[in-house]
Amino acid sequence: MEDNNMNKRKINRKGNLNANFQWLRALVKRNMKIALAYKSSFLIQVIGMFLNNLSFLIVWYFVFRKFGDINGWTFKEMFGLQGVVALAYGFSIALTYGIRNISKNITYGQVDKFMVLPKNVLLSMIFSEVQISAFGDIFEGGVNILIYFIITGFSFEKFIIAIVVIILATLLWAGYLIITQSLAFWLSNSEELSNSLLNATLGAALYPNKIFEGIPKVLFTFVFPSIFMSSMPVDIIKDIDLSKLLLLTFFAAFWLLGGIVLFNQGLKRYESGNLVGTV
User: Fold this and answer.
1) Which of 84, 111, 113, 115 registers the highest number of CB atoms within 10 A of its CB?
2) Which of 120, 91, 158 is nearest to 21 (CA)?
């Protein structure tokens, strides 16, 4: 009898997972269809973001041309850094831009419309929007990673590690965004604070970690995890450093699970507004 009950529970879990996957797939498909309705706008946003990111590399080219290297880092490492940051950040918001609007939904009482759905509230909010310009990040990041491997030498082992660290950095970004956005459950009108924390973290991620020392390095490693999402993945790829890979894995899980727990705790104390709509 117990075996039958366990088998039924396993079948139900598989059915729920499949139903959630199909629902998310349909949601993303709908959002992409809306976004692609204006193809010229889509291309302009993608190209615009690509050029914006390219400008950072041009600046760093002249910096390294003048100073040679920064504590062992050269311009070729910047291709890897820009590639990891652009890919991880792009993947974390391209199909899931609702993650950037969690605090806005909380502030204006829009969480209600996600709570009435028979699906996970956090997933419903995250997958409710797409961000077209993020595809420019992904394209530019892919180009930079390709150039990085051409310059430094390609190996299958490094390629696999690059895929792993980019996935981990993406999950870390997602967790960090959920945490900063969920502050709105406790702090009223914290949308600007959430965006400021994101901009500070993203800005620091575009610099090699070799320029940070002492307290700033501790802050941008453990409080604002910029180094975990940029320079450390590059060091792991370059040196095939498994100890750093384990550290990155731990903190990616820490930030992502922390974000989920914080959001769910906030949701429990959420006082609903009167703005109930439909997704």
Assistant:
1) 84
2) 120
Rg (CA), the chain: 20
Q: Which residues pair with 70 in a beta bridge?
A: 73
Find the largest Cα–Cα distance for the chain: 75
Question: pLDDT tens digits for 62-83?
Answer: 988 888 888 888 899 999 999 9
Q: What percent of the chain has pLDDT over 90?
A: 58
Contacts of 202 (CB under 8 A, 6+ apart): 85, 89, 226
Cut 0.85: pTM above it: yes
Instruction: Confirm if 190 and 184 have CB atoms less than 8 A apart.
Output: yes
pLDDT tens, 188-209? Answer: 888 899 999 999 999 999 999 8
Q: Which of 61, 134, 53, 51 has the alpha carbon at shortest distance from 100?
A: 134
DSSP state of 118: S
One-letter amino acid for residue 20 of the chain? N
Distance CA 251, CA 256 (A): 8
pLDDT above 60 for 12? no
